[in-house]
Design goal:
The complex is a heterodimer of chains A (373) and B (675). Chain A is mainly β and 373 residues long. In chain A, 3% of the residues lie in helices and 50% in strands. Chain A contains two helices and 30 strands. In chain A, strands 1-30-29-28 form a four-stranded antiparallel sheet, with no helix packed on it. A four-stranded antiparallel sheet of chain A has the order 2-3-4-5, with no helix packed on it. Chain A starts with 8 loop residues before the first strand and ends with a helix. Chain B contains 21 helices and no strands. Chain B starts with a helix and ends with a helix. Chain B is rod-shaped and about 175 Å long. Helices cover 75% and strands 0% of the residues of chain B. Classes of the chains: A mainly beta (373), B mainly alpha (675).
Amino acid sequence: MGEETEPSLIYGLELQGRSLAPITADTENISFMVGTQSLKSDNFVYIVTLDEDTGLLHKRILKYPAGEVWSLNPNPTDPNLFLSTYGEKSQDSWKKKAAVFRIPESKNNSSNDEGNLDSVDIEVQLDEITGKNEPVGAWYQPNEASKFCLIAGNSVNYLQLQESGPTKIWEAEHSVRGQTKIETGAWNPHRHCHQVSSVSGSQVMTWDTRTGDKAWTLNVASGSNIRSMDYNPNKQYYLATGGDDGSLIIWDYRAPSEPLTTVREHSHWLWSVRYNSFHDQLILSAGSDCRVQLHSQASLSSEPLRQSLEDDDVQEKILDDGIVQTFFDHEDSVYTAEWSSADPWTFASLSYDGRLVISHVPRSVKYRILNID
Amino acid sequence: MRVDFKSMEEEMDQLAESMSSITRFSNQISEKLRSRRQEVASLSATHSTLQKLECVLELPDRLKESVQEEEYTKAIHHWNKANASLKYYRDMPSFAGIQEDCEEIICLIQHKLEQRLQDPDVSAEQLSESVRLLQELGNPADNLIQTFLAHEAVKLDKSLEVLRAQVHLCQDPTKVNADSVVLMDSLEFIDEACNGFVPILADTATLFYQLFADHQGGEVILNDWITEHLEEYLNIVKTRLSLDKEERESVILVRALDRFYKKLSAATRNLPGLDTCQASLNVVLAVTEACVDATAANMEAELRENVLAARQAIAAPRTRMPPPAEGAVNSGGGAVAPPGAATSGINLIEMVNSLQDQIVDSLKTALGRLKMFTDPELTFSVKSGFRSRFSRDLIWNSIFFKQFWFIRDTCHKFTGDVTVPPALLLLLSRTCLDLHVSTIPFLATYTQDEFGLSESPNLSKICTSMASTSQLLLERYVQVESGDLSVLLGKSVEARDWLSSVEPRSVRAVMKRIVEDVNLIDSQVGQLYEEGNKKPRSGESTRRLGGASRARSVFSNYGNLDSSLATNIQKLFSERIDFFTPVKPTKVSVLTLIIKLGLKTLLECVRLKTFSKYGLQQIQVDCHYLQLHLWKFVQDEDVVHHLLDEIMYSAVLRSLHQPPVLMEASVVEVICDKV
């Protein structure tokens, strides 16, 4: 067999960054969107696309004149639209806002000169919705691009975008004692996406989008804050959370009193946890200990066993549970790590110092999951 | 001579002649007497027949008489004599009548004998008589054996019942029943058990061999029967003696066991084909095992109590600790908080020592108690079957290793407990370390010497496990303490509006609290763990100077540098901070890790905020203050400086005013000294 691991591709942004997202509408290319976060200089959004044949990274740089980028969430069907929260700075004040942005059609492919750059424009301003609350993030409903969830301060908003502008379908409040605001949110991809979760402190609260009522809650017993969560895309009721104690926890939300498993491999905050959307044995985590880790949780996945190659009647474990690989490519805190939406074996991670790394699942693991080794 | 011989020959011839004439005469006489003799013989035959006849005729009466006098032996004797002729002359009506009468009576006798066999109070002689007679009456031996044994069983059951009652009473002493059975101690119980059951069993066996000596397969039946009852008996004894759990009962228990073993072995020695030695040794072993298990359980309970006591002692002063008041922290300029021992009021090292002493004492006491079982005066203790099992299985596995695995498990459980006070984690970590390094090997040698055991046990597994538990507990301590610091730091940044800060005039209270807490941690860890190596400081090592020289990097004006260039240059020159360094059992290592993780949290929180000019300056003051106070705790002070630099750098990046305006270094120093 060839080399065990393909080398990671490293690309340095010129500014700090904490937002990275796969462009879900583009199912052909391995492409990600990255935003910079600087109060000092002008900010940019990078659309990076990996050419699988040449292994080269194509970049499209776009100005982001609204301010510093805090979060990005591309539209699930239209690759030219995305939701974003950003920090808008004026002489003496600074305010966090949220908006829908549009990426202009590319006029000139070859030029990335600063003077010639296209810029992304605000399509729909969401100020009225957030009001005084500080926006935390906005996420498109995965199966319906006209609807999205916007979290600001302690309030969870379910919105619909119409010709006339954004309409609020419902608003709910999720406040936890000792917490100033909600930390993050996530869509449950199962059952036509009628559940959306908000995370505050060590609590996950899930809302029924049809009514705006609470569906269920889940609490981390240790009281450690949750920084990130993700639903298992292939196995109903299962989800993963990661938080300040560095542990990755897998839950079955029907039995939320006890986690299914707790893996503590990060030595500082776990900032990002993501299930692989094709092979839910694989989970990606990243944290402020500068590490990106690829975990296997095959025993809790939708497909824990595979047909043995030697014996037709035997089923064997696909993978043992545990760390598949730890990636040491970053030297600063990694706030986001995301799987590509087009290729199940590729993922990107971004550290605060602006280093974007595109990495791959080790071949041996890939072949094992594909049942061809 | 020849003349002499001739004359002698002549004399001999004459003698022969006379002899033949005598013979002739005697023949003539006997010939004449023959007819008479026949008559006499027939007469005497008739007489005896008549006598027999009379005897037969009288038989029913005699038998009746014997029955009335309960002289069954005589009766059977007569009957046996007469029976044959009666059978022979059965055809004659008068004889038949007699036989019927007799058979009736014999039936009665048989019945009476059988009744005797049913009667539990019958004496041994009567019993053996009955059995013998019944045998003579032609009852099949197999049936008789069953009846006989059943009869004996009643007696055995009776004695077992007494013992059973004792067991019940012992199990539930409150249930003093109406029969006013008094609870016996083990020794009395064994006396009762040995004097009741064992002799009965021995007697039965003796009698059995007398009665059924020539019966084929009788021995097997007897042995089965004995085994069955013996098993029941041994079970009862075992149950009763196993109930003796109290330590003070050990002496009696051991004596009781010895007596039991001796008596049972002696009593049944003359039973061929039956090995009660092994069975009774098994009982001794089982009782010993129960005693050992009870001892082990006691030790476990003791340990649990001791750990709980330690936990309470740690928790108690904490709640009484006054809330950290501002200004009260230190009096002299820049002086650190008073030594933690005074603040915390817990003497951890004393607690570790006492917990260790308790563990050692508890094991020594247990071993002392069990040593009684190996007294060479005890009959069973010298048996090899007892010796090897006692030392290998009981002393090592059921006491020694069990105890240390229990300690290890108990300690291990705390690593997953979120409510446990951190000082307890530290204390247990140290305890496990000591156990691993010295206590376990020491106690193993002690145990070996105490019991004269030649083979030394394999300690590597338990020691390794203790060591890893110690490490886990220490890691958990770091995690909890750094978690607490992180929460404090995180909240202090998160809850504040940094865009509308006023000009900083003092260090924020939370920073003082942090330093105070670090001092407390330092004193706690310092009590239990040695200092550890620090990287030598460059230059003069007075704190003030160090602080000032270090301050340079913090106050270098980032605003003038291109920010990404600044990051890269900084990265070039500073070593990367590894948060993964495993914690070592030294004070410096523990403190370094806690401070590193705490400062990293501060860094993360700062990056989530946006700062106004004064907000940034407040961070500057706070960082300087932390720098002044935290460097001395860590292995490599550069780590603290580097992290604080990064916090400062991040705050600069998050500053609304670009280029950022920092405070004069001298002003910062004045503010920090003022505290």
